[in-house]
Amino acid sequence: MEDILFNKNFTCVAVSKTKPKEDIEKIYNLGHRDFGENKVQELEYKYNNLPQDINWHMIGHLQSNKVRKVIPIVSLIHSVDSLKLLKVINKESKKFDKVTNCLIQVNISNESSKYGFKESELDFLNQESMSEYQNIKFKGLMGMASFTNDESVIKNEFNNLKNIFNNIRKEIDDFNILSMGMSNDYKIALGSGSNMIRVGSKIFGKRNYQ
Ligand SMILES: *Cc1c(COP(=O)(O)O)cnc(C)c1O
Fold this sequence. Notes:
The protein has an 8-stranded parallel sheet with strand order 7-6-5-4-3-2-1-8. The radius of gyration is 16 Å and the shape is globular. It contains 9 helices and 8 strands. Helices cover 35% and strands 20% of the residues. It is α/β, with parallel strands linked by helices. The site of pyridoxal-5'-phosphate has 13 residues, from strand 8 and helix 9.
């Protein structure tokens, strides 16, 4: 496990959703600082009850009416999945006088996921339209592969996202995070150029729900 937590070639976000704070403290005490949550309420609770130098990652679908609560807490939002949400994050960040780091979630598995931009909807990611979002820092892309045992399908989807990422990268300064790979497919994702993996059950053990 330590080989994925402390690897200088990529960042591992330890996905602690549903797990008690004691479990997080164990990993924190090894020196790890990046943790991911998918529910706003749980994120708030853990933020308030764990050390302040943790980098919290919001990885789950975010409702517009909860953005306000997340802005002061997060170091990176992985799950920006609509222009509407992007605008709300921009507006709310302004109120906190903050620039929020965001990844744009891309739907690479088509049928199996309901969240994320389609490849054809990413035209807004160019240096010119960035100026509309003064309080957002566009850091990169996030994607989830299909839930399948067919590795070639997963590999194709990750390679596709890597190509999309490389193209957008040419347009935007400092656009350098590619968040892809979970417990079951992070090895494939790293082979396809991921530099940020989100790993839950492999670190914390199986979840009973969610
Ligand atoms: C739960 C979750 C993960 C981690 O899943 P594991 O299979 O436990 O590694 C990664 N990304 C997102 C968006 C998740 O919701």
